[in-house]
Amino acid sequence: MRTLLRGGRVVDPATGFDGTADVLVDDGKVAAIGSRLEASEVVDVSGLVVGPGFVDLHSHVHSIAGQRLQAMDGVTTSLDLEAGLLPIELAYAHAAEQGRPLNYGFSASWGAARAQVLLGDPADGRIGLAMLGNPAWQRTSSKAELTAWLGLLERGLAAGGLGIGVLMGYAPASDPAEYRAVAELAAKAGVPTFTHVRELVEVDPATPVDGAEEVFRAAAETGAAMHHCHVNSTSGYHIDRVLAAFDQARRAGSRVTVEAYPYGAGSTAIGAAFISPERLRMKGLNPARVILLETGERVADEKRLLELRERDPGAPCLLEFLDENDDADRAKLHRALSFPDSVVASDAMPVFWPDGSYENTEWPLPPGGATHPRTAGTFAKTLRLMVRETGTWTWLEAFRRCSYLPARILDDCAPGARSKGRLEVGADADIVVLDPEAITDAATYAEPTRPSVGVRHLYVGGIPVVREGELRPDALPGRPLRGEVR
């Protein structure tokens, strides 16, 4: 069916077009942009902004429930590239079997590959929250082990992995030579890496190598394309030094990219290496900055933190790395988002219910779901802060940061990405239509599953997933985005 979006403000970051026009959608593609166009279905979008759907490079949402929240936030392609999954074949098969509202894809997981080799092949080769705090896979590999898990990564890339996801921050004492080997593999295969960096030298002077410098150095020495994940959370109070080093590396010709999200708290497993009492002290934080996700308990002291880490190292928690109520800390978040060519990525987390399930298919979501508000609100909050409230970005720049630039990071390894992040003839009909006066986040730390407000329509491959501000529970048009090695 041909659908005409009539009379909206059309924004295409690929061509720089920003003006009133009609958009004709046919057979999953943008068929025409202009005036006096006709179609069997006409949707009046006058007064609304029409742009390419947001491409989220960093989402740990592997469920219909989580993707529905992201759909209401304007996302049309949701990719897990920081952690990734293995085996890649099973990850794609599971998503296809269930169906997804949004397009999906995965990197080959460094953490899962190491865990399979160093732990002796855990159940399904995935990195779960419990494994993040398990020191048995965080040690340096022997030469034979390194060869074995690099082979698993190669197979993951051959099976369609969108690069290599590296959770280096969870194995911060491992030999930097291993990371260099990963970068060499990525350069050889022509795929990017996506890294959660290890500690900065300001935080831990004994770190084997400064986390940010490790990425920049490996990119310079190997020629690999290397992406620095959530620079806001891993840099914290040292964001200005890291961004300056990033700018220097980029000017020197390194193929480095960076992302940020607009929150002062992250989310992970309480057993993670960087949430130990001594690591928190190094960061200038204390246990009261740690909040259990499922119960809301704010950790009282180091004794209680050690007890919780021992009892259930996989328990999801929040870590307040910056204070969003503090002007200086908010300014640091703003600088991470406004840094030239920094892209927006959510780090969306799974939604858990009290019974431990996360595969819920009800809509609206049942009460009691626990997650980080960034799952539901990252993009709407960013637009509220950067466009509506501060005017830091134009709408053209907003779509460039949320749609166009993220897709371009994948152009070399995923041919399917080349038609995303654009709103021009021939592009995929992954389209968001939003109210420029109303777009805002609604999710909070207390109520993290409240959908964003202001996304009026969302199309994935030309199929409406959101219509007139209401999600369509029957819509599962998401398709896989796969990588191709050289």
Walk me through what this model shows.
This protein has 486 residues and is α/β, with parallel strands linked by helices. It folds into 2 domains: 3-51 and 423-471, Urease, subunit C, domain 1 (Roll); 54-417, Metal-dependent hydrolases (TIM Barrel, Alpha-Beta Barrel), CATH 3.20.20.140. It is built from 14 helices and 20 strands. It has helices spanning 64-71, 88-98, 110-119, 129-132, 143-158, 176-189, 211-222, 231-235, 239-251, 277-282, 302-311, 327-338, 374-389, 395-408, and strands at 3-12, 17-26, 29-34, 41-44, 49-52, 54-56, 75-85, 103-109, 164-166, 193-195, 226-228, 256-260, 265-269, 290-292, 316-320, 343-344, 431-434, 455-460, 463-467, 470-471. Strands 1, 2, 3, 4, 5, 17, 18, 19 and 20 form a 9-stranded mixed sheet that branches. Strand 1 (3-12) and strand 2 (17-26) form a beta hairpin. It is globular, with a radius of gyration of 21 Å. The chain starts with a strand and ends in a 15-residue tail after the last strand. 56% of the residues are buried. The mean pLDDT is 95.
